UniProtKB/TrEMBL annotation:
InterPro entries the record matches: Epimerase_deHydtase, NAD(P)-bd_dom_sf, NAD(P)_epim/dehydratase
GO biological process assignments: L-threonine catabolic process
Protein name: L-threonine 3-dehydrogenase, mitochondrial
NAD-dependent epimerase/dehydratase domain ranges (all copies): 22-258
EC number: 1.1.1.103
Record field: catalytic activity: L-threonine + NAD(+) = (2S)-2-amino-3-oxobutanoate + NADH + H(+)
Organism (species): Chytriomyces confervae
Function: Catalyzes the NAD(+)-dependent oxidation of L-threonine to 2-amino-3-ketobutyrate, mediating L-threonine catabolism.
Annotated GO MF terms: L-threonine 3-dehydrogenase activity
Length: 328
């Protein structure tokens, strides 16, 4: 039979698929807050359970179900899954690249054992599971420009090593046990309303806050360090679209996902065009070596072809929108 087109597959899937019941772990982080909102708009507030080891604000609590959820505690997570008839799990609990180097043991525990717990739950209770990967899963021996999906992966940070584990174990459970594992290699994510939590790309968010507050920024990466980046709304829309893509449309389980790349010098210039007198100085620290081991740009053409990934925001669009939001 002829292969169905993506819109045909999507129409078919949306008519036949039951509404999922989704558990999001690490839901109070940079991506979780917005992702939960988007999923609730699509599937209904009560069908998305937000969880974290921290307390949510009163406003978040009023928007839908929130429970304490610790990825290191298998039994506790399992009780949430069983008691609520959860069908999809999204594991956003992780220590990022910079903070991971400072707390190696915690990064290993949360990123690896925590993921392993959610993967085992997915196997035992037939859950669809999404756990992000990252450009940090690549390393210094990876081709750095237009990096393809399938290439050398020898990361040198604990974060990267644990994310290669996520990709390989997820794909293993998919092949061996039929687990519907999905992963996206996120670039640096730029967001206005939530803070990034200890990554190497965090400068790209801090620079906006400093520009508006101090009209100056001291950057911990050198001026010419190019990295792949993306605006949060694109990241979230893309993630929901990937998560709900019909299984038959996926030719692989882990995809590169990108929007644009820039250097600290380039983003500073874009901000200076809009914030008079803004200046950046440079004082590279240990994060420079991490950034130097990552790709400068990604080839995400397979994601665009398989499940229709498309970014709305280019660099200028992102800078304009960030400044509008942060000035409010
Ligand atoms: C980090 O910098 O560690 C993260 C990432 C690119 O995964 N933002």
């Amino acid at each position: 039979t002829a292969r169905r087109s993506l819109p045909q597959l999507r129409r078919f899937a949306s008519v036949t698929a039951p509404t999922p019941k989704i558990l999001v772990t690490g839901a109070l982080g940079q991506l979780g807050v917005g992702l939960v909102q988007l999923l609730r708009n699509k599937y209904g507030a009560n069908n998305v359970i937000s969880s974290d080891v921290r307390k949510p604000t009163a406003a978040m609590r009023s928007e839908g179900p929130f429970v304490f959820g610790d990825v290191l505690d298998y039994k506790q997570l399992e009780s949430i899954v069983v008691n609520n008839d959860v069908t999809w799990i999204i594991n956003l609990s992780a220590l990022l690249s910079a903070v991971g180097e400072m707390h190696m043991d915690r990064a290993l525990a949360i990123n690896m054992q925590g993921f392993q717990n959610t993967l085992e739950l997915a196997k035992r209770h037939q859950l669809r599971i999404l756990c992000p990967s990252t450009i940090g899963a690549f390393g210094p021996s990876t081709p750095r420009d237009n990096t393809p999906d399938l290439t050398i992966m020898r990361p040198t940070t604990i974060y990267g090593i644990t994310k290669v584990h996520v990709e390989l174990m997820g794909e293993y459970y998919h092949r061996r046990f039929g687990v519907d594992f999905r992963s996206l290699r996120y670039p640096g994510i730029i967001s206005a309303d939530t803070e990034p939590g200890g990554g190497t790309t965090d400068y790209a968010v801090q620079i906006f806050h400093s520009a508006l507050k101090d009209n100056a920024y001291k950057c911990y990466l050198g001026p010419d360090t190019a990295l792949p980046m993306m605006y949060l709304p694109d990241c979230l829309n893309g993630t929901v679209s990937f998560l709900s893509a019909p299984t038959e449309s996926l030719t692989q389980r882990t995809y590169n996902m990108a929007a644009f790349s820039f250097t600290p010098k380039e983003i500073s210039a874009k901000i200076a065009e809009r914030v008079k007198g803004f200046e950046t100085t440079y004082e590279p620290d240990y994060r420079q070596a991490i950034a130097d081991s990552w790709p400068r740009s990604l080839d995400d053409s397979i994601a665009r072809k398989d499940w229709g990934w498309k970014n709305e925001y280019d660099l200028d669009g992102m800078v304009d929108d960030m400044l509008v939001r942060l000035r409010k």
